[in-house]
Amino acid sequence: MSVTIKDVAREANVSVATVSRALNGHENVAEAVRKRVMAVATQLRYSPHHAARSLSSRRTHTIGVVLPDLHGEFFSELMRGIDQVARERGLHLLVSSYHGDPAGQGAALRAMRGRVDGLLVMSPFVDGAGVVRDNLSPGMPAVLMNSSLAGADLPAVSVDNHGGAREMVRHLAGVGHRRIAFIAGPADNFDAAERLRGYRDGLVASLPGAQPWVLQGDFDEASGHRAGLELLAADERPDAVFAANDMMALGCLFALNHAGVRVPQDIAIAGFDDIPLARYVHPSLTTMGVDIGELGGRALRTLLDTIAPDDGSGAGDAMAPLIPQLMVRDSSIATTGGNRRVPATPDA
After folding, report:
1. pLDDT digits (tens, 9 = 90+) for 131-188
2. How many domains, in total, are found in the chain?
3. Do 252 and 279 contact (CB within 8 A), yes or no?
4. Regarding beta strands 340-343 and 325-328, do their DSSP bridges make them parallel or antiparallel, or are they unpaired?
5. How far apart are CA 73 and CA 45, in angstroms?
6. What was the pLDDT predicted at 336?
7. DSSP strand E in the chain: where?
8. Within this chain, do residues 68 and 25 fall inside the same structural domain, yes or no?
9. For the chain, what is the radius of gyration of the CA atoms?
10. With a threshold of 0.70, does the pTM exceed it?
């Protein structure tokens, strides 16, 4: 005869409900009890019947993740954070990418219906919350990641992009740079818009009277390289270049290095995100550090609390943005003691 959940409960001297909560990763189970249940389940070789469990509970124990792209270190780190929490809770992930196409995003969201217990969605479009709302099945729990909240009654986790960009401008101005160019991200991208706004406000606060110098980018290395070539051809070059993400900063750095421009002696460079590669290029990249893995992990923890609320102790964390850390490295000013971390000042 196959081992049942009642057998596990009897051997562990707990209720069937406690066994279910322990095996499903709920937090309202004492750690000692959880370990005892898991040990008994392993000893008895108990294997939950997921199909039957889904029919009785109407849960799939699968979380949907809908992202604009899967390429690049940012999304790799984001998925690492999500996956770590999913494995801790015994959950599966169903991941879809819509390659930055709003229509594709809607199709991906609709394809998740009936297949997942909840959704993590990164909708970078300025009006992304509306796209999500219009394509979610009724009652589907969802958490937005770095998306505009306008018109959406959904919890969200985000990064203080505006405050981080202001802090970077303050740093660059503080080490003597006066002509600071900015490589912006896609015009319809929420993160990009907030970082551009922070750059402009940073100039007003740190360099009164300075004129914005904005070049268009697309959050990839190629667009950063094109922006670097454009700056090299300008009649007057900037003192510093602040790119809205690290990939564009690295593309610009390659263009300047190839042209024999010394960084940071001739032109300083800074980015945003602190992807793992940022510290290993030459010169190492000054950037605004974002704990991208924590962004993903926090999003999933928030979603799970929405699906099966505990005491609500973590509910406030969802609305409090992650504060970027200023990582001062060699590309903006020579350093001798490794990275210097400076928290960005959060927006009021």
Report:
1. 677 777 767 888 988 776 555 678 888 899 999 999 999 999 999 999 999 999 998 8
2. 3
3. no
4. antiparallel
5. 39
6. 40
7. 62-67, 92-97, 118-121, 142-145, 156-157, 180-184, 213-216, 240-243, 268-273, 286-289, 325-328, 340-343
8. no
9. 24
10. yes
